[in-house]
């Protein structure tokens, strides 16, 4: 093998075109071989198939078939969020246009740690972050790898603003990454306010803020991981104002509601937060990663300023080269903003809002189907795309076993969550191509796995109307 071709440069596209054909053919073949949402057989069977297909990963002499073989085996062994019966997590099927834009990002490979590595990409990032910050009622936003990094950055900014005596106060419904952020940043364990109804109770928050000495960072959630609920943001903001507490709202899941004219009111009060986490790889249909941290006061970001002579020497900055190093604690950084920018502009507010409404409507219909099946119990009507349900009269162990049975067969992927002291199956609907018949097929599979189903389930993907998985 000679020197392999590059992806960019004058001959880059010529070299890429046949390789893209290989990738697309392999994706198609692997997806067809899998058939369902998940490869059957569980972890050991999948690992064996992968090991078998891969052979030696670093052979003495290279293998020109590697691209086809590895993409095929990855697609065959994928949990495919574009399959309508894959509904466990906040794991979105990426839009084709976003994935295509992400290819351009990989090819051009701008690195957003200095202007001389990313001239246009840094300009685009500035436009997109400002526009999305405005959507959230904030002044500026940083690009992150997702909710975890956004929450961590929010805690860091709070610690820098308020000192290391900072106490984080959050509901029991908050994402685990808030606790991890405290640990990573050397802060005391957060004060956890019980949230038996699934949302942060302002009265219980008030009690905690009164009892625990500050300064405080309160973390609210707009779109909880387990149940898709939105904390009462205006009342929480009031309590924070009364106690002089800083407020971070984790809207990693819920921020997509901003695009929907119908559902945007659910996020009233978001603009009162000092910082907001938003993820476009959840209700934004982006390939991972696509996170943002919006800040109400752009001056808060000054603490991230950092000097490295090879990237942002003072004389370069004085001469007008943008200083990018303070836009992230990372150094080399992908232009994740490209795929997001392409998506926002291609779909517009209406297009994105329609996707958000579609998956939320699907969740409402799924909940109604559960409600009308005597063999199943619904936890509560959904707010976002998350529905908790369980086989009626099942124990927690039965619920967990149903989920694992479905995983082992590869016929459906559901999540699990605790609510009201019991374990529930969790369906997170994020695929706007899902049909009503798919929802019924999913429930039939659950009933059969639980031994409560009267009918034989429709095999996944062959529901009467079929599904639209792209
Ligand atoms: C509310 C919430 N915050 C943060 C996160 C973490 O996001 P990421 O996985 O993008 O780091 C999640 C993930 O599901 C989440 O549900």
Structure in words:
The protein is an alpha/beta fold. The protein contains 14 helices and twelve strands. Helix 4 packs antiparallel against helix 12 (337-371). The radius of gyration is 24 Å and the shape is globular. Keywords: Aminotransferase, Decarboxylase, Lyase, Pyridoxal phosphate, Transferase.
Question: What layout of secondary structure does this protein have?
Answer:
Blueprint: H1 12-34, H2 42-54, H3 66-76, E1 86-87, H4 96-108, H5 119-135, E2 140-144, H6 147-162, E3 167-171, H7 176-184, E4 191-193, H8 202-211, E5 216-221, H9 233-243, E6 246-251, E7 275-279, E8 291-295, H10 309-312, H11 314-318, H12 337-371, E9 376-378, E10 386-391, H13 396-409, E11 413-419, E12 422-428, H14 436-450
Parallel strand pairs: 1-11, 3-4, 3-5, 5-6, 6-7
Antiparallel strand pairs: 2-8, 7-8, 9-10, 10-12, 11-12
Helix pairs in contact: 1-3, 2-3, 4-12, 5-12, 6-7, 8-9, 12-14, 13-14
This protein binds pyridoxal-5'-phosphate (PLP).
Residues 90, 146-148, 151, 175, 177, 221, 223, 225, 250, 252-253, 279, 291 line the site of pyridoxal-5'-phosphate.
């Amino acid at each position: 093998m000679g020197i392999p071709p590059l992806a960019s440069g004058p001959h880059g596209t010529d070299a890429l075109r046949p390789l893209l054909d290989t990738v697309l053919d392999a994706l198609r073949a692997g997806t067809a071989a899998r058939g369902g949402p998940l490869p059957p057989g569980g972890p050991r069977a999948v690992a064996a198939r992968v090991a078998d297909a891969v052979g030696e990963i670093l052979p003495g002499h290279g293998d020109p078939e590697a691209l086809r073989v590895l993409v095929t085996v990855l697609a065959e062994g994928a949990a495919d969020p574009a399959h309508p019966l894959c509904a466990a997590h906040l794991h979105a099927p990426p839009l084709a246009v976003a994935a295509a834009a992400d290819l351009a990002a990989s090819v051009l490979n701008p690195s957003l740690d200095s202007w001389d590595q990313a001239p246009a990409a840094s300009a685009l990032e500035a436009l997109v972050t400002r526009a999305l910050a405005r959507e959230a009622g904030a002044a500026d936003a940083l690009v992150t790898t997702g909710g975890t990094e956004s929450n961590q950055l929010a805690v860091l900014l709070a610690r820098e603003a308020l000192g290391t005596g900072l106490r984080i106060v959050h509901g029991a419904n908050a994402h685990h990454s808030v606790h991890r952020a405290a640990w990573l940043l050397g802060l005391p364990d957060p004060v956890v306010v019980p949230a038996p109804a699934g949302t942060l109770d302002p009265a219980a928050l008030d009690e905690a803020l009164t009892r625990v000495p500050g300064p405080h960072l309160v973390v609210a959630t707009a779109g909880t991981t387990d149940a898709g609920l939105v904390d009462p943001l205006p009342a929480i903001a009031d309590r924070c104002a009364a106690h002089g507490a800083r407020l971070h709202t984790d809207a990693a899941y819920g921020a997509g509601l901003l695009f929907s004219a119908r559902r945007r009111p659910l996020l009233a009060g978001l603009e009162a937060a000092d910082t907001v986490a938003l993820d476009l790889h959840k209700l934004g249909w982006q390939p991972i990663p696509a996170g943002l941290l919006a800040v109400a006061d752009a001056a808060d970001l000054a603490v991230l300023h950092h000097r490295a002579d090879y990237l942002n020497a003072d004389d370069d900055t004085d001469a007008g080269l943008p200083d990018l190093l303070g836009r992230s604690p990372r150094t080399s950084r992908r232009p994740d903003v490209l795929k997001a920018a392409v998506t926002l502009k291609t779909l517009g507010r209406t297009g994105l809002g329609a996707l958000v409404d579609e998956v939320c409507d699907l969740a409402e219909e799924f909940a109604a189907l559960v409600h009308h099946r005597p063999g199943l119990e619904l936890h509560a009507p959904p707010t976002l795309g998350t529905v908790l349900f369980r086989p009626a009269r099942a124990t927690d162990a039965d619920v967990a076993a149903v989920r694992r049975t479905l995983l082992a067969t590869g016929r459906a992927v559901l999540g699990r969550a605790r609510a009201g002291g019991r374990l529930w199956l969790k369906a997170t609907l994020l695929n706007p191509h899902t049909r009503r018949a798919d929802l019924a097929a999913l429930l039939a599979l659950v009933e059969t796995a639980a031994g409560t189903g009267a009918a034989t389930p429709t095999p996944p993907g062959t529901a009467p109307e079929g599904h639209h998985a792209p």
